[in-house]
Amino acid sequence: MKKEFWLERWEREEIGFHQSEINPYLRRYWRELHPVHNSEVFVPLCGKSRDMLWLRKQKHQVLGVELSDIAVQAFFKENSYTLHHVSAGEFDHYEADGIRILCGDFFDLSKDDLANVGAVYDRASLVALPPEMRARYVRHLTDILPSGTQILLVTFDYHQPQMAGPPFAVSSGEVEALYLGHADVHLLAQLDVLPQNPRFKERGLSRLQESVFLLTMY
């Protein structure tokens, strides 16, 4: 999947993946994480997610990375922030009130960029990637995160031939395989959510399961 796919989705406002409400799993399970005091919470492929507002209200510094400049500027504008913007290195840096978003390619991130991160919230990153990109994503993420970092991961699972992603189907077994040797994987919850998501049923799904994981980096 090329960068142009996501850039065009934002340009055309084809953003059905964007949630206007705070994710209920974030509210319920964030307390399972224990990030170091004053560390940042990293939100990969953050879009204009309102979940970042909730994390900031919990007194966390928030760091996002997002490919689309349209998404980044929309986040700050829609939430009435006075924006500070600078260009440095591979990224455009946007910041306001303890929320900082790096606009650019996730794969250009370095250890220095994530040096202060103590926790990660991944609701829309791993499931946004096709199978051939997920292993590369996890390798890069685990290479640049500080040891001991905890990750709250939310995934979808369904019969992939019934619907073209994104979001793509990611099974519990795949999560364990991807993070094998990099993190301890603990399943917090697994729920059948097709009845609450009729639009996916209309797209042909016979099953839709959401899983919530707590991962702790070695």
Secondary structure: number of strands: 9
Mean model confidence by pLDDT: 93
Question: In angstroms, what is the radius of gyration?
Answer: 17 Å
H-E string = HHEHEHEEEEHEHEHE
What about the largest sheet? 9 strands, mixed
Number of domains: 1
Regions with little confidence, pLDDT below 50 for 5+ residues: none
Give the overall form: globular
CATH fold assignment: Rossmann fold
Count the DSSP helices. Answer: 7
Classify the helix fraction into a percent range: 25-40%
CATH C-level name = Alpha Beta
Detailed description of the structure:
This protein has 7 helices and 9 strands; from the N terminus they run ααβαβαββββαβαβαβ. It is α/β, with parallel strands linked by helices and 218 residues long. The protein has one domain: 3-Layer(aba) Sandwich (Rossmann fold). It has a 9-stranded mixed sheet with strand order 3-4-5-2-1-6-7-9-8, sandwiched between helices. β6 (117-122), α5 (131-144) and β7 (150-157) form a beta-alpha-beta unit. The chain starts with a helix and ends with a strand.
What does this entry show, briefly?
With 218 residues, the chain is an alpha/beta fold. The protein has helices at residues 3-11, 24-29, 51-57, 69-78, 131-144, 172-179, 198-202, and strands at residues 40-44, 61-66, 84-88, 91-96, 99-103, 117-122, 150-157, 183-192, 209-217. The protein contains seven helices and nine strands.
